[in-house]
Every structure is written in structure tokens, then in C-alpha cells.
Amino acid sequence: MTEREIRSWLMDMDGVLVREEQAIAGAEEFLARLRERGTPFLVLTNNSIYTRRDLAARLVANGLDVPEEAIWTSALATARFLEDQRPGGSAFVIGEAGLTTALHDAGYTLTERAPDYVVLGETRTYSFERITRAIRLIAGGARFIATNPDPTGPSSEGPLPATGSVAALISRATGVEPYFVGKPNPLMMRSALNAIDVHSETAAMVGDRMDTDVVSGLEAGMETILVLTGVTTRQQAERYPYRASRIVDSVAELIGELT
Question: Residue 86: which domain range?
Fold first, then answer.
């Protein structure tokens, strides 16, 4: 594989920079080096609950200084996609501030009456009443969009049902599959690259999952780097039919490339 010059970096947040609300060793130095050099970068997350400001505050609490504008979420990617598809449209939203703020900022009207789209994101409290409303609106002709396909999310007590699980419930009730915008859809990567005006040919995606981070980076034409500080082991990575460009123990190994 030919060595490519990397001029910009996309990186997943959980498992790459933080794990269980603790900064991963080397993450702050890696980010500091990117900032010092003025290298374009974005921190990505499939989580649509939080706004950029929320996530920047969470990272600061973990000792990581990431400016708001260097954060990209599946909610922002979804809003960008809908703004492009149907400017000034309307949506019925199941989600939290990260998603509703992004859609408002994209010029969308949030409504329960004949919306163009039903947009499903993540929330801490899925309401049976709102899920029922979503099912009826989709049955009535609204288009079905979901921010990301993750079936579960982590919590201190164990896994929580997430967007993918609730999407499956709605799909079973309506016979309509959603269009998922977030990873592993390479659209998430394309929207992130466009947000910082960089090209895939000179960009790298750093992630801890083969089935979301690596495959979407690969399909977007980027160099892909798997770190072993998250959920995937080197042995598990070998089982996939596609490969990361390289595997490193952590982002600490990448600091030397930013001299």
C-alpha cells in the first residue's frame, strides 16, 4: 500500500480520544499537535443527543481541548443532508437538543402535522406516544430518516436501546426502512470532509470499530487507521473482509507524524 500524505484528520471520539469518561493516553498531545500546526481535523460521533457545545464541554471535563467547530455529529450530518435534499422542509423529530438544534439551524420547521420527514435520533427517554405518532406519520407518507444505525449505547449499568433498535420497531410496524445518515454510511464522512473543506485523498479516519469507522472511511476514499483502545482487537479486525490501512495501539503512536 502506497504511503499517502495526510493533511487532515477525522477521528471517532469514544474509544479513540476518551473511554469511560477518561482521556486516552496520548490523546491530548495528539490534539495539541494538530492545533499547533493548524491541521484541519474533526472529532466525529454517531451520538445525536448532544450539541457541539455539550460535547466540547464534556471533552474539556476529560482534559481534552477541542473547539466546538471541530466536532461533527450524526445530527449535524443529518441536518446537512436534509437541507441539501429538501431546503426549508419540515420534520417530526424524536430526539434531543443535538438533533433539534441542528435541524433548526438548517432552516427546518419541526411539526407533527404532515411533515416531509420523520427524523429519528437518540434520546434518553423514548416515548411510546411519540413512537406511535412517528409510525402513523410514516404510514401516511412521511419519509423516514434515522441519524445512525447503532442498536445500543453504553451506560454504567449496561447497554441501552439506541436509534437502530427503535428504528427496527418503527420499520416492523410500517414496513418502511429508514435511510441512516451516520456511520457506516460514507455520507457521514463526506459531510465531515465538506464541513472543513478538505479532500479524502489526503485525509485519514481514525477509529476503534471496523464495522463503522473503518468501513465508512474506506468507502469515502480515505486512509483508515484502527486504534486498539476501543472495542476492536487485532484478532477481531482480521475477521473482516476489508482491512484498515494500518492498525496502531493508540493515537499516541500517531503523534510522531505531526512533527
Answer: 80-180
